[in-house]
Design a protein that fits this description.
single chain; 220 residues; mainly alpha; 3 helical TM bundles of succinate and fumarate reductases; 9 helices; 0% strand; elongated; binds protoporphyrin IX containing FE
């Protein structure tokens, strides 16, 4: 690899990591608001209403979509470069040296992408008035909580959501540590801590999201 293409790959990786960290932060906020559904639909609606009317969050939403697009685009470009530049003889050894989660990042990433398309179609596009029909509360406000409840009383959706979200957990497990590594924050003294943090993040976020459809289906 020439110096120029080496530095261009590093730049892409750094941009990807920064976008990835941004998306990881979004997931924590999103999970927090969604967890209100475990208490009541009305509490969730209050959270959704705040998010839907706050000017900063309205702008942030489009920054978020750009973040997803950049992360996905560079992820695909880097993966293709990686496949093309790997010498054939080393292929097997290199594959053995990678952790299974890191080896499958492109595939688990694809799963998240498919999930995202379905998910936006279920909620965000309905809110925008592009598909379906948004239920309203008696006081005439959007009833996003009712839309979520209705979807998760359908067993097929519950199953698809839970499976895809758990697969997302594998992507997340590698994501945080990979971002730290790319940004050079991988000192041996605290590397064990970063790996543990990455795993804890993946477990809490994936299980947190997966519990919501199950809880609604069985208890609400
Ligand atoms: C059970 C799990 C989940 C539920 C109940 C849920 C619910 C929702 C709802 C109701 C909206 C529309 C919010 C609005 O515009 O007012 C939304 C949007 C969104 N969700 Fe989720 N979500 C879940 C999991 C996820 C996961 C795992 C991801 C990450 C890949 C994700 C990414 C997004 C994005 C990017 C948007 C559009 C931005 C936004 O409106 O905030 N969601 N979700």
């Amino acid at each position: 690899m020439s110096n120029k293409s080496y530095y261009s790959s590093i730049t892409k990786k750094i941009i990807m990591s920064l976008m990835g960290l941004f998306l990881l932060t979004f997931l924590v906020v999103h999970l927090t608001v969604n967890s209100f559904l475990l208490v009541s639909k009305d509490l969730f609606n209050e959270g959704a209403h705040f998010m839907g009317t706050n000017a900063f969050i309205q702008v942030f939403q489009w920054v978020l979509f750009a973040g997803f697009a950049i992360h996905i685009f560079y992820g695909i470009v880097l993966q293709i470069q990686n496949w093309m530049s790997r010498p054939k003889g080393y292929k097997k050894r290199a594959a053995m040296e990678q952790s299974p989660f890191s080896k499958y990042m492109i595939y688990t990433g694809l799963v998240i992408f498919i999930f995202l398309i379905m998910h936006l179609n279920n909620f965000f596009f309905v809110k925008m008035g592009w598909v379906g029909h948004m239920p309203m509360t008696p006081s005439g406000e959007e009833d996003m909580g009712a839309l979520v409840m209705a979807l998760f009383h359908n067993g097929y959706y519950v199953f698809i959501y839970v499976v895809l979200i758990l697969l997302m957990g594998f992507h997340l497990d590698h994501a945080l540590q990979s971002a730290f590594q790319t940004l050079g924050l991988n000192h041996p003294t605290y590397w064990g801590f970063i790996k543990g943090l990455s795993r804890a993040y993946a477990i809490v976020v994936a299980l947190g999201f997966a519990i919501i459809p199950l809880f609604i289906y069985f208890f609400k």
